[in-house]
Amino acid sequence: MIVKICVPEESERRFLYTVDEKQIEDACVGYLRMDFDSTGNGFHHTWFGQNNALNNKDFGKEFDAVIGALRHDLLSGRSGMEKYNHAHEGLEIVCWGIHGKGYRAETEQHIYYLRCMPQRGDYDCYCYCYDRALLEQALVAEQEPEESQEMGGLSQ
Fold first, then answer.
1. Closest among 54, 60, 65, 64 to 27, alpha carbons compared
2. Cα 127 → chain centroid
3. Is 97 helix (H, G, I), strand (E, B) or coil?
4. CATH architecture for segment(s) 21-142
5. What is the pLDDT of residues 128-150, one digit of tens each?
6. What is d(CA 39, CA 7) in angstroms, rounded to the nearest whole number?
7. How far apart are CA 28 and CA 110, in angstroms?
8. Residues 92-127: pLDDT tens digits?
9. pLDDT at 148
10. Domain boundaries, the chain
11. 91: Cα within 13 Å, side-chain hemisphere
12. Which of the residues 17, 24, 50, 149 could staple to 28 if both were Cys, CB 3.0 to 4.6 A apart?
């Protein structure tokens, strides 16, 4: 599987972290927390499911293929991630003095947001997984004006 990585828009920065908004939470399948261990070459990970109804066999197969493809470069290890971050455009992240980058990977059914902060002694990467259709619905709903929005001094 070829996975294309791109730079998220500034407005997508929130998807690199756990989002506490009902419709966005409903679109999130879950996230994977990754650590390259003290050697920088290991690959320890923990899955945190958020919407079990979305975590089906098809998602599992696709997710394994996406992470497997990314293990060849971005997720090849701490030094590989550092090199990738240095060589590629990404959404700049600075957290507690640690510099990293955010990326988006897409498939037909899902959008994956990766927060890559290679740092020994901390988690190196988080990958948040969203159902594409549900996330797009939630974003459209955010843009729609509220029903009680006032127009010309009168409430609708």
1. 54
2. 5
3. coil
4. 2-Layer Sandwich (3.30)
5. 999 999 999 999 998 876 654 55
6. 28
7. 10
8. 999 888 899 999 999 999 999 999 999 999 999 999
9. 47
10. 21-142
11. 21
12. 50
